[in-house]
Amino acid sequence: MPNSVVDLQAKLDLFSEHWSPKRVAQLNDYDIKVVKLQGEFVWHSHDDTDELFLVIAGQLTIQLRDRDVHLGPGQLYVVPKGVEHCPRADEEVHALLMEPAGVVNTGDAGGELTATVEDI
Amino acid sequence: MPNSVVDLQAKLDLFSEHWSPKRVAQLNDYDIKVVKLQGEFVWHSHDDTDELFLVIAGQLTIQLRDRDVHLGPGQLYVVPKGVEHCPRADEEVHALLMEPAGVVNTGDAGGELTATVEDI
């Protein structure tokens, strides 16, 4: 089946829940996802992969153990594999995520915020 | 060395040449690049990998053999591996590209538009 054009805002308009990434495209064995974030996530790391955050709207803080990374619209950050991080959004943030398919959002932490990735 | 925040517009402000992707980040063995496009590229394909285009500014047409794909700001398209394509931008386009490190921009076509990817 041929790929379709993905309009990120149109995809974001389809859901409202937070911390639940939705897959909008696949690039080889990587997932391209959009997510809405508000509040504080859980501290976790991904031992086997880097993770890319690109902010589309809002102000995102990615807390690391030794500093905070601040991202606004049009800014991206790659969390290196194995690095503990905890995203925080005081107001709602819309972001694009890119990471290998099958990565669990809560990494090594697990818990109630663990989400199943759906296509949207 | 810890990763840095990447501001896409600030990176785009650093160069003016067209069809010469600049790497702004790495995600595992993938490159995240920004590029300025104007005019028509060459028809080519990448036999081993998909290629993601996310338009930041302007209107991009990705010509395929059977149709044209039109992308505006905030829209992305993944060209499947092996699919011949030829990007065209009647006015300047700024875009983000994601693909495995080492992919040659002109794919199987080669020629004078073949660019070496620099970090920026």
Automatic annotation (TrEMBL), chains A, B:
Residues 38-95 form the Cupin type-2 domain. It holds the Pfam family Cupin_2. It comes from the Bacteria. PANTHER family: 16.7 KDA PROTEIN IN WHIE LOCUS. This is Cupin domain-containing protein. It comes from Leucobacter viscericola.
